[in-house]
Amino acid sequence: xxxxxxxxxxxTLRGVGKQTLPRLHQAGLVSVLDVLLHCPIRYQDRTxxxxxxxxxxxxxxxxxxxxxxxRRVFGKKLTLHCEIEDVSGRLTAIFFHLHAGLSERLMPGxxxxxxxxxxQDKSKKRFILLHPACEIAAEELPPLDTCLTPVYPLSExxxxxxxxxxxxQAIGILENHAAAMDLIPAALRGQYAWPDFxxxxxxxxxxxxxxxxxALLAFKHPAQERLIAEEMIAHQLRxxxxxxxxxxxxxxRLSENTDKLNHFISTLPFPLTQAQKRVMQEILLDLQxxxxxxRLLQGDVGAGKTLxxxxxxxxxxxxxxQAAFMAPTELLAEQHYQQCERWFKPLSVRIxxxxxxxxxxxxxxxxxxxxxxxxxxxxxTHALFQQEVSFHxxxxxxxxxxxxxxxxxxxxxxxxxxxxxxxxxxLVMTATPIPRxxxxxxxxxxxxxxxxxxxxxxxxxxxxxxxxTRRGSVIKRVHELCQKGKQVYWVCPLIESSETLQAENVxxxxxxxxxxxxxxxxxFIHGRLSSEEKNQTMRAFNKGAVDVLxxxxxxxxxxxxxxxxxxxxxxAERMGLAQLHQLRGRVGRGRDPSxxxxxxxxxxxxxxKERLAVLRESQxxxxxxxxxxxxxxxxxxxxxxxxxxxxxxxxxxxxxxxxLIAATQIADNLLKEDSSLAERLEGRWYxxxxxGSKTG
Length: 696
Ligand code: ADP
Ligand code: MG
Prior knowledge:
The structure is a single chain. By secondary structure, this protein is of the alpha/beta class. It has four domains: about 1-40 and about 150-245 and about 655-685, no CATH class; about 50-145, CATH 2.40.50.140; about 250-450, Rossmann fold, CATH 3.40.50.300; about 460-620, P-loop containing nucleotide triphosphate hydrolases (Rossmann fold), CATH 3.40.50. Helix content is about 40%, strand content about 20%. Strands 12-13-11-14-16-10-17 form a seven-stranded parallel β-sheet, with helices on both faces. The protein binds adenosine-5'-diphosphate and magnesium ion. Magnesium ion (MG) binds near residues 305, 306 and 558.
């Protein structure tokens, strides 16, 4: 592969200097080719006017009318409120950044065309446009655009117009350049009626007047489909290579004798579910091979993944090797540690706890026990793969709630175990319900096991969606349950902007509840407390000494206290369904009926109401995930909170799932028929990821 050509430096572009270059790098753009492949996340339709009366909230629109009046409004900041009228109605455009040019031209009587996202005022009776882009004229405005305007994912210091300019240049430079050669064989292009590479790229960035607007808006235009499929093919190639790389190493072959494991299982107070048995067999087979296991274990909340992991840790220790169990939070790591102690102490298994929060002497001691093999099982957070940690015949790593760890961290852990060319088996576990086809593609580098059965005897959680105005009666319910010796979680709304505000809020709600429920013990945890404080509260809650635990969403993953039977979630409308489902999974773990109350702030929009209703009606994580997708178009299931994130440039595995199977097959054929072409294709889309410059 001619890397010089594909790495054509960005400084070739006009206007890219010391200031812009780091910003482009920040956005993951390293070469001219990267700029070319920086695809729009959506398009704005500036080709048609919408009458004010026909506006739809939250949609982008272009309106045109006369300015009726302009008002200065003094709030925290000075704003201009501009009343606009067309033949169908009126709206208010609100401007924040008042540069002189703008306020001078905003004059009653002028004709204005405004482009922006439609909002509504508090009364929901009037449309508003917040700081729209606009054109103003005394009499007549220039003609409307004739084709769609691309909208790009932005990062700090980059604007839409800046990006458009750079992309235009990149197209000019690469048009006849070897780096932009078509890498999809002509026969295949013919089969799908795909345009060639440059035609597709140009169309995506600069659609022409003849292009089908609706197809473009839906990402179904042949030019888009070609690039989407190409990126998915490249992704498959990359995963296959990652897998092949690890498969080249040897691992530790665990013993086929499972007497100790069987004995341990026979001491449990309950039998394994069929699903647990099946999945354990799948994993054990992998562990008995000297090829490193790379397996994903998926299972809904409460399906009993921890026990499966624990059994595999035990089998590793019984075979004479070391095993590690890694959790995404301190809280969860501590809980897993305690659980392992309870289960394995009687079997004389030596367990060491390692997190970043240990004091110096404890840490030194833990490190030395890990290194000299006195530790059989190490439980901890990502502190486990810090530099100073050296393992002693580490044969298995279990990673809980994998969606919190990136592929990168997993690679780091892999390299850690990679001593004497023997690497640890990897078991990654997730409760994020992804439809199976999606999982197969997103995790094509992993084998896949599913725990598709909950332990028996679980009583369905009764869920209610209530307005915040019912808070008083909810608190009463909390009281009743506490008096019966039951425990309650109270989850506070998320304040993303400030950890301090969040902490204050948690403390305030705890104080409020303590005043009303004076005979109950209220505990709280939030991100501002030391881990010792958090653990103390958590331990007290575990033991039943705390009745009500007020918390942020930190308790989302893994926490397991069967006596807690009610969860109240405030401002549920602000959270994603998958997250709410995870949270709710903290109750319903014991033998008593349990409840979840989703409180929302009024007024609640109809789509938000529909979303919450899904939770009331279903407890099946997979069903909820699918409904969430259908209602939102695309979800954060894969940890991609917005389109354009998650490492994809144009494809969206949810929206474009109909291409997944074809892409997989094409990738396989390419590898067989022309592996050097396959390598170039992968390199085109992933070279910068390989350079480690792209963050998700
Ligand atoms: P998750 O899959 O969400 O991590 P956990 O591992 O936390 O679920 O398990 C939830 C609860 O179910 C725990 O209290 C665990 O001890 C219990 N459990 C696990 N397996 C079984 C089983 N086969 N029968 C009954 N209870 C089980
Ligand atoms: Mg768990």
